[in-house]
Design a protein that fits this description.
Distance between the termini of chain A: 92 Å
Oligomer: heterodimer
CATH topology of the largest domain in chain B: Rossmann fold
Structural class of chain A: alpha+beta
Number of domains of chain B: 2
Structural class of chain B: alpha/beta
Largest sheet of chain B: 6 strands, parallel
Number of strands of chain B: 6
Order of helices and strands of chain B: EHEHEHEHEHEHHHHH
Shape of chain A: elongated
Strand order of the largest sheet of chain B: 2-1-3-4-5-6
Chain lengths: 443, 218
Amino acid sequence: MGYVEHPTRWHRHPARFRHREGNGGPLRRDPADRLGGGVASGVAAWKGFNVTTVRIAFVLLTVVTSGIAVAVYVLAWLVIPAAGGGPSIGAKARSDAQGIRLAAALASLLVLVLLVAAAVSDSWLINWAWPQVLSVAGLVLIWRNAPADEQATIRHLVQPLEVATGMTVGVATPRRRAALRLTIAGLLLLGGSAWLFSLHGSVALLRPLGGVALIIAAIVLALGPWWLRIARELDLERQARVRAEERTDIAARVHDSVLQTLALIQRRADDPAKVIQLARLQERELRAWLFEGRVPNELDADLTLAAGVRQIQQDAETRYGVPVEAVTVGDTELDDNLRALLAAAREATINAAKWSGADVISLFAEVEPAEVSLVVRDRGQGFDPEAVPADRKGLAESVHGRMTRRGGTATVSTAVGEGTKVTLKMPRTAEPQTQGPSPVGRK
Amino acid sequence: MSALRPRVVLVDDHGLFRSGVRAELGREVDVVGEADDVQPAIALIAELLPDVVLLDVHLPGGGGQAVIQAVKGAHPQVRFLALSASDAPEDVIAVIRAGARGYVTKTISTAELADAVRRVAAGDAVFSHRLAGFVLDAFAASPSADDLKPSFDPELEQLTNREREVLRLIAQGYTYKEIARELYISVKTVESHVSSVLRKLQLSTRHQLTRWAAERRL
């Protein structure tokens, strides 16, 4: 046994490539410093090599082994766990039956293509391509099971390929993808036949090709349905994901509306009138959402000003229990300016409902030929405008800002004990998009 | 003097509402009678001749305006204050044009209702914020030529700027006293503006007024 080198000697041998001693721990990929899967940096850290050295060695190895090293790299990516804990991607991939089938399908498809290519020509490229069957299968498994950031890396690596084959999902529109695929297929067909006929001038030489065609047909017949099923399953999986997203969206909406209202109802169980009011409002909102497709708490595009004012009234009454007396004179379709006016009015109304302590809030909207005015008034405690802390920007930003950005004005008259009156005016024919904020009414 | 403690008849088809108003208003006015429909109300008013009739806009047998139309000719001194929960503009405008001196919503506070009754008894007009909005709306557009029947008084067809201002403030929930302070005029002047608006509302020949109300059916 004396002639066997001590293991450490082999490690010590390329000592001049080392920056430091190896970390001594188990081999772990290092996703923090990665070009692909972080295998090279992992190996470098493990043995204490320079990362760049390992990478160059890997490229050389790839050339020497005519591509096998790439497959080995992918396998390493799959098998070696990432630094910082967690199982390897391969461990997760074992339970991903769908992914394994997809990988097998892609691999078999690639094998088929390579068989055809090998039959037609005997290029060195073919030899290079064989190991990549394994790489592709491995990458599929990684792509499906790796953490999000590593998935992104793969997407970057594969993106040019995806675009070329028109397989990009969700990037191109289906029609564009179909057109691209057809074009590529047509070009391949044309190029292939032209190539064949130019190489084999005599038709007799094409005979072996008949055999190849038969084999291909056989493989397609045998494996075709399987590929199709896998494609279908992938589609089903995507639909399931879409449904899951919809469900999350619905859950969020139900929480914002129904659950909030139920909580309010429980808190006000001793006030039957209030409970009925809450229930009615929630019912109205839910019906509008379920059957008319209107989203709660958002001003509809087809809403009119009077309907918008009614909505503010209902909202303030339900959420803060303060009666709002709304009077609207005239009505008009909403545009962006008037939506901003309504949003400002909503803010002012809710402010009054929350802070003024008034028994009732008046909301008065008047549509005149030149402008729309909206007055929110309460007889509550009022406030000293100078004493509002700088971090309570509700009135300043939501009301003043909204109005002046669109060429309107906002005037607040209030004093402690005197109630508050917010007067909002928005010109009807202004061109706010091209104008800067109007200096009128600004603080 | 009757204006200080007016004699009131309640006409409303909801017994609960009548007893509620009677209990609340009893300290401020004399509720001398109640009726729950058009015909009993007409008979009762002719018999009691109250200062003010608190009249529900919606009555099963023809609505509040039927009561006013039946009583008005024989007993012009009886004044009507319309009261409603529904606020459908065409009903409100109809009952005002039939001769009611004012209109308030059923959500009004007791103190305000008592005040409104006293005003009507004294011959003034009483507008709720709702009615003010309706009137502003109805008089908003300048009437086109075919909107007007031949009128003796073209002034009837327009509100003055001052009247508009007063109505706007009423619509914003201001009391007459607050309006007077806001506009630097006396409460009496506010009342005369409101009465003038009421007169225009009742005497105007604007087609628009009735058509407007009909279009607002919600």
